[in-house]
Design brief:
- Helix 4 crosses helix 5.
- The chain has helices spanning 2-17, 42-54, 85-90, 93-109, 134-144; strands at 22-25, 31-35, 65-71, 77-82, 115-120, 126-130.
- 18% of the residues are buried.
- Strand 1 and strand 2 form a beta hairpin.
- It has 164 residues and is of the alpha/beta class.
- It is 38% helix and 20% strand.
């Protein structure tokens, strides 16, 4: 009887270690967003899921993609993306792309609150962290809202319309 109880305890312990949170999906894609922790709601996860599909075209019907959303210690969000570590190492520019994604999510969804991007394996174990960067957000905002050139009230030169 003891081996059965021990086996059940081990199984429950393992299940607890793989608790990625509650899951939401979006129709027409193989994308999934897990959300967990205090201060993160199903509505937050659905909003992120829709944004990743509609605005960033990250979620599609071709490949399963998993993301996890949690509140961060800096009052912003930690968003964990499952990536292929070999492909990540082969293409360092991917890190910059995910930094841009974090900035876009900060601006478009979370009112410029910090968004840290964490690239993970398929068990949400950290491979690489891309911390929130105010400068990337600033550059994104400048692109979205270019400065307006001031008009000057200097008179233009008169046009000579006489036929002399």
């Amino acid at each position: 009887m003891k081996p059965i109880i021990l086996s059940l305890l081990v199984a429950v312990s393992l299940a607890a270690c793989t608790n990625y949170g509650k899951k939401v999906t979006i129709e027409g894609t193989k994308g999934e967003v897990y959300y967990k922790g205090d201060g993160v709601t199903e509505a937050d996860a659905k909003k992120l899921c829709k944004y990743l599909k509609d605005d960033l075209n990250y979620f599609d019907a071709d490949r399963k993609k998993s993301v996890q959303l949690m509140k961060s210690k800096d009052e912003g969000y930690d968003i964990r993306f499952v990536v292929d570590e070999k492909k990540l190492n082969a293409s360092p520019e991917v890190t910059d792309a995910f930094g841009q994604i974090g900035a876009a999510i900060s601006v478009d969804l979370y009112n410029n609150k910090p968004v840290n991007i964490i690239l993970t394996d398929d068990h949400f174990k950290t491979i690489k962290t891309i911390p929130f960067d105010k400068e990337v957000v600033k550059k994104l905002l400048e692109k979205l809202n270019p400065p307006v050139e001031e008009k000057t009230d200097t008179p233009s030169e008169p046009t000579n319309n006489s036929n002399q």
